[in-house]
Structures are given as C-alpha cells and as structure tokens.
Write a structure and sequence with these properties.
23 helices, 691 residues, 5-stranded mixed β-sheet, transmembrane, TIM Barrel, 3 domains, 8-stranded mixed barrel, alpha/beta, Alpha-Beta Plaits, 56% helix
C-alpha cells in the first residue's frame, strides 16, 4: 500500500531541520566557551535543541504522509524515540568536547549520533498503531542508516568548525541547510523503505475523519512543544549574548571590577555642570609591581592584582572603582572635595600596604595615588584623568607610597617631560650626545687609576640637559639601550685613540642600566665596541648598580659571566645605597666595589664611619678592588686612605672633563706624583696639594 505526501508539510519539516541545525551550531560556541556547570548546562541545551529538532522534523514528515487507513501512535514509544535522539546528541557532543578532537573521537561521536537518528526514526515508526503490517525494504533501510551516519559525521564536523563562532554568518546558514538536507534525506529514505499491507475487508479499516484529526492534533501539539523548546533555548542564547556578554564586556575579568569601558560610560553620563558638580578622582598605581611579576611570576602578579581589587572594593564600597589595566585602578568620589579625597587617599595607602597572603607567601606592596578635583582641574573625563595621572607620577618621583594632589606646576613639568621624551628620540637618531670623563686616582701610588665615561645631552634649543632629568626618561622609554651602545663605542674609540697618542693605558668604565640586561644585547654591544675600535678588553669596565638585584638576578649573572670571559672588568656602583644583598654578593662576578658618596660625604658621622670601615673590610675579604666616590676634600682623602681605600673619585681629583681636558689632565698627572684638578668651564687649573 502506498500513501501520498503533503508537500507543504514536507517543506515545513525541512525548515524545522534547518532551523534546529542552525540553533545547534550557535549553541556549539556556548558549549565550547563555558566551563564547569555552565558547560554542562549548555551541553544539555544543545542536545535538547538537536534532539527535539530532528524528532520534530521526523513527526512532521510522518504527518505529511497520508495513508488510506486509520493510524494511531503509542504515546510511550513516541516519547522514547525523542529520548533516544536527545541522549544520542548528548553523547556525541560530549565525546567531541575536548579542545583537540582526535579521529577516533569523531568516529565514535558520529556513530552514536547516527545510531540515535536510526533508533529515533524506527522507534517512532514502531509507535504507529494500525490494522495491517509494516515491513521494510532491506536496501532502502540500509541506505537510510548510511545517510544517518553520514549526516551525523557532517553535523559533528560542522559543530567543531563553528564552536568558536557565536555570531551569525552566511557560512553557518549554508552549513545548517546542508545538515537539514542530510537529516531530511535520511528520514524520507527511511519512509521509502516502509512497506504497508492491510486487509480492506476488515472492519474499521476506513479512517474515521474525526478520530484522525484528533490524533494529528495531538501530534501537532507535541511537535509544537518540541519546537517551542528549540525557540526557548535559542532565545536564552540570544539573551545571554546581549545581556550577560554585555556585562562581561564592561567588567574586568581578573578582578570583577568595572573596566575602562564602564568608566567611560560613567563619565559620559555624569553631569559635571550640575548643582553638585564636585568630584574627586584618585588614580592608584602599585609601586614596583613589575618586581613581583619578575620574581614570583605573572600568576602571582594576577593574584596580587585580584587581592588589591578586593581590598579596594571593601574599603571604598560606596564609590565608583575601576580597574584600568595592569596594576592601575581609579576611584571616583562623587561630591567629594579636596579634604575628603586626601582623607580617603591616606586610608587607601594604609590598607594597601598591609600584608597580602597569597598561596602561602606574605607579600608587601605600596601604592602611589594621584588626585584630581572637578571643577578645579577640569570638567571632563580627559582633563581629570590626565591631571590625576600626572599627580600619581609625581608621587612616584617623590619616593612612592604617598599621594599627590594635582597643581599647575605639575602640568608644566609633565609638558616639559613629554617634550624631552620626543626630543630624546630625535637626539638618539641625530647623536646629540657627548661624553665627559671623570678620572679616578690612586692616592697610594700617585697615579691615574682609570676614568668613568658619563653621557651628556646638548639640546639644540634648551642647551645642556641634566642627566638626572633625561636618564630616567631614557630608561622608561627604552632609549637607554641605543644610548648605551653609542657611549660604549665612543668610550672605546677615545680610549684607543689616547693609547695611540702615547698616553699610559687607562681602564674606562661605562654605566649599565637594568634595561640593557633585559634587552639581552649586552654581549653584542661590547663585542661590537671592541671589534670596531681595536681596544683590548682589559681596558673596558662596566658599572652596575645594586638596583639590578631586584630583577632577574640569575639572568644578569649569566650575562655578566659571558662578558667577564672576554676580559671585561665589572664594578658595583653606589654600593650600600640601594638593594644590598650580602647573601648574593659573593655570587656576583664583580671585581670592584664603589663606596657610595653618601657615606663619604658624611664620613665624620660615627655610623657612616663604621659603615665605610665595614665595606672596606668586606671588600678586602672578597678580594675586591675598592673605590670611594664623591671625594671632595683632602680630609676625606686622608681618612679613606688611612682605612685602606686608596683609589678615589670626586671633585677633589677631577670634575667630569671632555676629551681635550682629559688629555691635559693625563699629561700633567705623569709629571706630578699627586695632582689636584679643578675644571671650571673651559679653564683647567692644576694644583699640587703638597705646595
């Protein structure tokens, strides 16, 4: 017995298959991006969409097929077919969930989904109740199973392809159409395999139109419910995209605080010209946060930022708090004036410097805070943020762990700084630098003991710029790296030239910034300078400061060992004034300790005298050469010489000089056992302390 199709309902079944396929592909992205319980929820939702979609398409196709006999359906078996399809989809999606899906995962997942489609289809057919028999053509049955497996593999392939894309696209719609065609192809091939046979002489074989309509109505209600489930889950996905994802876009992922985009919204909506237009901004930046990342790793850095965010939220629970990025936070105090802002800044400084216990480590950190006030410092977001940021940097310059309120002088200073930064880039390109050399003197032998090369900048408009002003800018911007390469080459060239002119060979030292070590270019710099000038490596010395010990000390030691193998000498500059680590001192490949001028200047103080003596004793026990910096009087020279530190550097023996003045100094030093050189402008005055 053969029936006839209602082609409008066939078209409807195809549309349902396409729509459910598209919804499943969209939910694939939700399943992939979610974690934990959320991922399980989206996995169940995706399985329901796929299962209900295929099942609804199947029964719409069944309703589209009209027989001349009355057909009813067993409710239990009908819903069992739906359960088969949902369960098969869940297993298939679960198997193909890992980030890297192997071929066997795809094969097993496709088999389960294909088997589920076959089970759903033929279980649904078994739910049919009629007076007659139902058999299947083996060839068409096998073909329908093959199409089901093929459709399943295609569906899973497309599921994997689109699981990283949640947005609509033409490719996704085309893929949904392909999946819909495959699903419909399996269904109608399976229908083709059916063979109905009936006995028309039996009573009750003629369909009762009222009964038939009731059965179809019940099936339509069930199918409509399945489609409603698909629509509901798809609507929830859209809601998630538009609401929850929107919330995530304005929330910092690490701390849970509002982010910069939410801050912009707040300022755009704020009425700066209203009756209560007072506002205070506090720009908060953690001090030496980079050291935490460098020493403990970025994971600890993230934990610290999260803990600071929690502490800020608890302390300022009635204020607008934002994380701007990195270790920067912003707090907006609506209606607050200067006094209230300063009070809150003091509270925050105290709260942040309390210890943080993270994964068994007790960390201490401080912060610097810049404050700007509206309307005093501006009435828009840009002006207030700029003012607060400028004040914060000033707080850092003044020693960190403090707050600073913006004023006009800071703005002028920042404008000059920005101008110098731009000019400094041009200066590196145009080589506007020159070198001064400050000599070192050995008081015990009465001979020169080397010199230190000091970089200076002659600005074409502003004249000589203090190194205290441009060196920090160079370090912050990284320009110190090409500047160091230049001065190293220049110092080696000049030293080689002096030797060729017949002067006694001297060792010239060049200062190194931690940024040079971070660049990993130190060895190349030195090799290029030596090979380019022909200078013997033993006449070049590099000076490091104790501050580098707060960085990657093992990496720095490795680089120092490599240059020491070339014959380069290494000196520890400003010893005693920075991050002294006596436990690591014997591990550092250094040859010289330079006693900081702070102790020399106050040598008459009992404590400073004891420190100087301790440093000299330590240096001798470690077989290190000792140099005292900042020697300006004969009394200081005699004191240091008496303790056993005979090599000295300072204005008493010579100010920084250019290459011509150094030539004269070297010429004079060979004629006198003890020389005092004072340079003032272009004049060079040489005195004999013995006279």
């Amino acid at each position: 017995m053969q029936g006839q199709y209602n082609y409008w309902m066939v078209l409807l079944s195809f549309i349902i298959a396409v729509f459910s396929s598209y919804s499943a592909l969209t939910l694939a992205a939700k399943i992939n991006h979610a974690r934990g319980r959320a991922q399980l929820g989206w996995l169940l939702a995706g399985s329901c969409v796929m299962g209900c979609g295929v099942w609804a398409m199947h029964f719409i196709g069944m309703l589209a097929y009209n027989l001349d006999i009355q057909v009813t359906y067993n409710t239990g078996i009908t819903f069992l077919s739906l359960l088969f399809m949902i369960l098969a989809s869940f297993i298939a999606f679960q198997i193909t969930l890992p980030a890297k899906v192997r071929f066997r995962h795809l094969a097993i997942g496709g088999f389960f989904m294909g088997g589920g489609i076959v089970a759903m289809h033929y279980t649904g057919m078994a739910a049919m109740q009629m007076r007659g028999t139902l058999t299947y053509d083996p060839q068409y049955w096998s073909l329908s199973a093959i199409i089901a497996l093929t459709a399943s593999y295609a569906s899973l392939y497309l599921f994997l392809k689109f699981r990283n894309r949640s947005s609509a696209s033409a490719a996704k719609w085309i893929s949904a159409v392909i999946m819909g065609l495959a699903i419909c192809g399996m269904h109608y091939t399976g229908m083709k395999a059916m063979i109905f046979s009936s006995n028309h002489n039996e009573r009750g074989m003629v369909p009762n139109s009222d009964t038939d309509m009731q059965i179809k109505l019940i099936l339509l209600v069930c199918v409509s419910a399945a489609i409603l489930v698909i629509l509901l889950i798809s609507s929830l996905a859209v809601y998630f995209d538009r609401r929850i994802m929107k919330g995530m876009a304005f929330t910092d992922e690490l701390t849970g605080l509002p982010n910069r985009y939410r801050m912009n919204q707040f300022f755009d909506a704020y009425d700066f010209r209203g009756p209560d237009d007072q506002m205070a901004l506090m720009f908060i930046d953690l001090d030496r946060f980079k050291n935490v990342n460098d020493t403990l790793g970025h994971d600890f850095g993230d934990m610290l930022v999260r803990a600071v965010g929690d502490r800020l939220r608890k302390t300022m629970n009635r204020s607008e708090i934002y994380r701007l990025g990195g270790d920067e936070f912003l707090c907006a105090l609506s209606g607050a004036g200067r006094a209230e802002a300063e009070q809150w800044a003091k509270v925050l400084l105290e709260e942040i410097q309390k210890p943080f216990v993270l994964d068994g480590y007790e960390l201490y950190i401080t912060s610097s805070i810049g404050i700007s006030l509206s309307p005093l410092h501006g009435q828009d977001r840009h002006a207030l943020l700029k003012a607060a940021d400028t004040a914060m940097y000033k707080a850092k310059e003044e020693g960190k762990n403090r707050y600073r309120v913006f004023d006009e002088s800071l703005d002028q200073g920042m404008i000059r700084r920005l101008g110098l930064e731009n000019d400094l880039r041009r200066a590196v390109h145009n080589q506007e630098f020159f070198v001064l050399y400050q000599p070192k003197w050995d008081a015990s032998s009465g001979k020169a003991a080397g010199m230190e090369a000091l970089i200076r900048w002659r600005h074409p408009e502003l004249g000589i710029i203090s190194p205290a002003e441009f060196i920090p800018i160079a370090e912050e911007t990284g320009l110190i790296i090409p500047m160091t390469r230049w001065i190293m080459g220049e110092a080696c060239r000049q030293n080689q030239q002096w030797q060729e002119e017949g002067f006694e060979p001297q060792c010239v030292s060049v200062n190194l910034s931690v940024r040079v070590f971070e660049s990993q270019n130190l060895l190349d710099m030195i090799q290029c300078a030596l090979s380019g000038t022909g200078l013997d490596a033993k006449y070049l010395e590099v000076e490091i400061t104790e501050s580098i010990l707060a960085s990657d000390i093992q990496g720095i030691i490795s680089q120092l060992m490599k240059i020491r193998e070339l014959g380069i000498k290494i000196a520890m500059d400003d010893f005693g004034s920075g991050y002294s680590s006596l436990g690591s001192l014997d591990k550092l490949p250094i040859d010289t300790l330079k006693i900081d001028q702070l102790f020399v200047r106050e040598y008459e103080s009992g404590s400073k005298k004891a420190i100087i003596q301790a440093i000299i004793t330590l240096g001798k026990q470690l077989n290190l050469e000792l140099i005292a910096e900042g020697v300006e009087t004969i009394e200081q020279s005699e004191f240091l010489n008496g303790l056993g530190c005979s090599i000295m550097q300072g204005y008493y023996y010579g100010r920084p000089m250019n290459e011509d003045q150094i030539r004269e100094w070297l010429s004079t030093s060979t004629e006198s056992s003890t020389v005092l050189v004072q340079v003032s402008g272009p004049q060079l005055k040489i005195n004999n302390p013995g006279n």
